[in-house]
User: Fold this.
Amino acid sequence: AGGGSGAAGGGSGAAGGDCGIAYVEANTLCDIVARRAEQGWQLVIHANGDRAIDDALDAFEALPADLRADRRHRIEHCSFLHDDQIARIAAMGLSPSFLIGHVHYWGQAFRDEIVGPEKAELLDRTASCSAAGIRWTLHSDEMVTPIGPLRYIENAVTRNMWREPDGVLAPQERVDVATAIRAMTADAAWQCHSDGEIGTLEVGKLADFVVLTDDPRAVAPDRIRHIEVLETWLGGEQVHPLPA
Assistant:
């Protein structure tokens, strides 16, 4: 599947009622999505705010059902989600990829300075999407947040905040470790149409895996990011540390 991506701006409603910038206006976005879907592309739309997510959902909803089925179209970042938007995502078979570092690095700022405490509860709604039967993944958007898959897992499990060590943003959206690991492995491969090759350890797939010092499911949740990667294997060959 191709990775052709449309881009919607982050038209995010803020605490005072202001909105962010829509880099692609709604009508133009609909035209782009329709044209690329007809060409056979998988669509990946960047949308942060709830207004931008509505624009993305409207564009996907305007597609004939056969141009949505099995394409695994997704919304990148998909930051602020209302219940009705989660229902629409589930109904259309879409999936989000969450920039989970938003919770850890900027959760306090979103809550106290940018959107307010009520709207901050809508940030990166991983548990709610799981409950709706939606497959979702995690990413860093590096340089926005540093790359670190184990940290992404920890952030999704704890939802703790860097500048408020004892604080948790939207604790009802925490997920268990196994769900977060799946988001980083099997579901990430599925989103990219690569689940026939990677994502799980099965006969016939590439032997891509890591060897860790500890089981992420067994350590304290706030220690997951500190687990050391002893070995990394790609396609059955060890690439870290390089063999002598």
